[in-house]
Amino acid sequence: QIAPPSNPLITHDLSPMGMYHAADWVVKGVMLSLLAASILTWAVFLFKQVQLMKATRRTQKLLTELVDAESLENAKQTTQPFKGVESSLISATQHELQLSSLGSASENGIKERVQLRLERVQAELGRSMTSLTGILATIGSVGPFVGLFGTVWGIMNAFIGIAKSQNTTLVVVAPGIAEALLATAIGLVAAIPAVVIYNYFTRKISGYKAQLADVSVALMILVSRDLDQKRMQSHQEHNDTVLKKVG
Predict the structure, then answer these.
(1) Are 222 and 94 in contact (CB under 8 A)?
(2) C-beta of residue 201 within 8 angstroms of C-beta of residue 133
(3) What share of the chain is helix, strand, coil (3-state, %, to 5)?
(4) Which residues have C-beta within 8 Å of that of residue 31, sequence separation ≥ 6?
(5) What confidence category does residue 40 fall into, taking pLDDT thresholds of 50, 70 and 90?
(6) Among 136, 123, 135, 137, which residue's Cα sits nearest to residue 209?
(7) Model's pTM, two decimal places?
(8) What's the rounded Cα separation, in Å, for the pair 64 and 158?
């Protein structure tokens, strides 16, 4: 009785975990690094999503209060319960107005200095919000190449094994190539979500920066309104003084 020829594919576990265990140590390192990058991508997504949602909500409430405020002092009182880095825009405005009141200053000079302070605070808040997004860009751009490196290394080892065994049948070649291609697949799994999430946060952060710009404009309107009221009050007091002298 002749035993049927055995199928070499039966001796190979072609599941993802089986191919990982059968892979070379370099390919294993590539796979593990890409899996870690994928986990890091989703961790950054969850953290930035919560951070951006809270910041956007705070900024929108702050903007609503500033638009409804009659003066900067009134805005300070209504926004006092607000907690968040966005309130630093109001603090910067009040600080500059306090420094400008210590000496003689023109209205245009005060407005210019307040505007410059607001621009710097706004830029700092924007940089803070874009933190960690560079990780997503790096994973999205480097991930496929790292996976490709693992594939090239795995195929090279597969061809070396084929040359040593001197057997070029498909059942011998397929397992080694499949193990190598798994590295590219994991690289794409890590890179594609990273690119999509990075573009998503780019749009969301641009909207957040636009909200900060609206807050700065609302503060400049309040500053201009307060300066106009002070000028009108000073002019009225001057007229009253002149009338008293004439009388």
Answers:
(1) no
(2) yes
(3) 85, 0, 15
(4) 20, 23, 150, 182, 183, 186
(5) very high
(6) 123
(7) 0.79
(8) 65
Contact 124, 216 (CB under 8 A): no
Spell out a b/e string for 137-152, using b for 16 or more CB atoms within 10 Å of the CB, else e.
bebbebbbebbebbbe
Q: Which is it for the CA torsion 107, 70, 74, 76, positive or negative? A: negative
Residue pair 172/7 in contact by the 8 Å Cβ criterion: no
Instruction: Report the b/e string of 83-109 with b at 16+ CB within 10 A.
Output: eeebbebbebbbebbeebeeeeeeeee
Whether residue 40 contacts residue 134, with contact meaning beta carbons closer than 8 Å, is answered with no
Provide the terminal-to-terminal Cα distance of the chain, rounded to the nearest Å: 137
Query: Tens of pLDDT along 159-180?
Result: 777 777 776 666 666 777 777 7
Look-up: residue for tokens 């690119």? Answer: 195
Token pair in block for residue 154 = 């795995």
Q: How many CA atoms lie within 13 A of 193 on its CB side?
A: 17
Report yes or no: 91 and 62 within 8 Å, Cβ to Cβ. Answer: no
| Phi and psi torsions of 80, nearest 5° | -60, -40
Q: In 10 A of CB 64, how many CB atoms?
A: 13
Do 219 and 92 meet the contact criterion of CB atoms below 8 Å apart? no
Question: How far apart, in whole angstroms, are the C-alpha atoms of residue 48 and residue 134?
Answer: 12
DSSP string, 38-60: HHHHHHHHHHHHHHHHHHHHHHH
